Amino acid sequence: MPKPSPAPDEVDKPFWDACNEGRLVIQNCKVCNRFQHPPQAACAECGSTENLEWSEVSGRGKIYGLGVMYDSPITSLTVDQPFNVAVIQLEEDPGINMLSHLPGTPVDDVPVGASVQVEFEATPETGQKVPEWRVVG
Amino acid sequence: MAESRTQNAPASMYRSSEGLGLWEHRGKVAIVGVGVSPTARRWDGTPETSVGAWSILAMHRALEDAGVSPEEVDGLVMTRETATGSPWPEGDPIPEDFTRMFKPGVNPLDGITGLSSEWILNNMPELTNVDFTMYGPGCISRSLVVAAQAVGDGLTDTCLVMRGWHNLSGRYYVGQAGRAANITSGLTKWSNTWGTVACYPTAMWFDQYCRKYGKTHEMHAPFVVNSKRNGLLFPEGYWAQHRPEPLTVEDYLSARWIAKPANLYDNDIPICVSSAFLVTTPERARDMKQKPVYILNHTSTTTQSRSTIATLEEAEASTDSMGRKTYEGAGIGPSDLSFENMYDGFAEFHQFHIEGLRYAGIKRGEALDLYETDISIEGPNPVSPSGGNIGSGRTRFWCHVDSVQQLQGRAGARQISKPAEIGVTGTMTPMAVETLVLSSTPG
């Protein structure tokens, strides 16, 4: 799907760079041993700016929930309406979630709770890759 | 925004924690007057109907309603924002007739797509004695709770509280330029990349809610139909004024999807309108025209979601906390409520609020069952007698206007049949909500 390209900023650039390399990384606070996503300048728990690191995760997760977009505000995506927008929970920490169009899964046929695997999709404007998720098993 | 001399209310003015006990000013602050401007779908570009002009009009109406002269007012608490997403087109000139009619504030677009206390006071010279000003940012509910605390603390004793809304042409939230953008930045990159619309998180919650509790979207129809009915009984509202069209269950169920399972009628319509309230002490209220409505408590709940999007569990935990705080500070329980006027913009999160409040004795997962009983204004458990945003357009203040009018016994055709003694009113979302407990007596 012709997604708009996310523009990396100073804080989240490592996440997007990793996507371009085919890796999924999540910000982690070494002190709190706690993932956070989307990335932030400081740990949301302890406020530390110096103890944040990037941890590569498995790219496995589960479908938590969904909605089906029939009236997206983003013009480039309206040609594919209706389309799924699912919430994916990471296997390593279900508290961390991301959105997904669930490529390969028809609208109104989304298996909530099913296992998914990350893949990376290039966006047209800049080529920036973004995480997407495909049902497996 | 440019600097304003007026500050956002400090965190200490919000009752945001559990365990605070009874509100120290319980029953010692009252709302007396209410004023609402006319409504319009979009701004017609004339200065007389600008959000600034209508905000001034709403404040004059609130003063007239309370029987208070402008020079008696010593406080102004307001919301600076006048839309959640209707930006002035970049590069468009400000209409000259607007700049001729009004004095400037701190931003060139004050009075058109925003407000400041400076703009209000520059254009209401009749408010000669205002020496307390404060912003309750983002929402009229924040302004009202800040005003309640300020009056209780003695910072002001005759305080106007105001919120205006503007709506321009073009697609709400993104504008025409944003809609066509091929690059996303800032926090919205985490949602715009996947094309979600504003109601998406609520739709996703609702979908999860239905899975968790075995409910359906069809069971939501009675709430929306009831809200539309109540809205058509609200002469101040947009639908009653411009499109008095009743909604049937069939209309609701056949409406187009926006973000399934949220359809057109699960969303509110952006409009232009302003409202104002006169908040004061019971002592001052004795000399005013309307019966005082006593504030028994106010609360604030802001819950940070752990990740990209808040989950149903987070929304439920947040509204559970809201409910506990609301009752604790007021010293009441669910059975004391005559009605509830919690927020509904978007309609599909109203049930999280009323379940958090255990309204009418319901527990988690039972709100849609309540909707299948008599939730009308004539019934034993009136649900959203204001009709809320769904019934009268996007404002976040119909709930407050109606609650005051219900408790004063002057809600007209919307007056609930049972005695209106205590009501709860509040906005916004399950993750960020302020509440007020209002009463016909000081308690």
Question: Could you give the topology of this structure?
Answer:
The complex is a heterodimer of chains A (137) and B (443).
Chain A (H helix, E strand, L loop, with lengths): L4 E2 L6 H8 L4 E5 L4 E3 L15 E5 L3 E10 L5 H4 L4 E8 L6 E4 L14 E8 L6 E7 L2
Antiparallel strand pairs in A: 2-3, 2-4, 5-6, 5-8, 6-7, 8-9
Chain B lengths: L29 E7 L14 H16 L8 E4 L17 H6 L15 H7 L8 E4 L4 H13 L5 E8 L9 H6 L2 E2 L4 H4 L7 H14 L7 H12 L5 H5 L6 H5 L3 E4 L1 E2 L9 E8 L1 H4 L7 E10 L9 H19 L8 E4 L7 H7 L10 H5 L16 H5 L5 H11 L13 E8 L2 E8 L4
Question: In a nutshell, what does this entry contain?
Answer:
With 137 residues, chain A is mostly beta strands. Chain A has helices at 13-20, 75-78; strands spanning 5-6, 25-29, 34-36, 52-56, 60-69, 83-90, 97-100, 115-122, 129-135.
Verbal overview:
The complex is a heterodimer of chains A (137) and B (443). Chain A is mainly beta and 137 residues long. Helix content of chain A is 9%, strand content 38%. Chain A has 2 helices and 9 strands. A 5-stranded antiparallel beta sheet of chain A has the order 7-6-5-8-9. In chain A, a hairpin with a 4-residue loop joins strand 2 and strand 3. Chain A is globular and about 45 Å long. The mean pLDDT of chain A is 97. Chain B has a 9-stranded mixed beta sheet, with helices on both faces. Chain B has a two-stranded antiparallel ribbon with strand order 6-7. In chain B, helix 12 crosses helix 13. Helix content of chain B is 31%, strand content 16%. With 443 residues, chain B is α/β, with parallel strands linked by helices. At the A-B interface, strand 1, strand 5, helix 2, strand 6 and strand 7 of A face helix 5, strand 5, helix 6, helix 7 and strand 6 of B. Strand 1 of chain A pairs parallel with strand 5 of chain B.
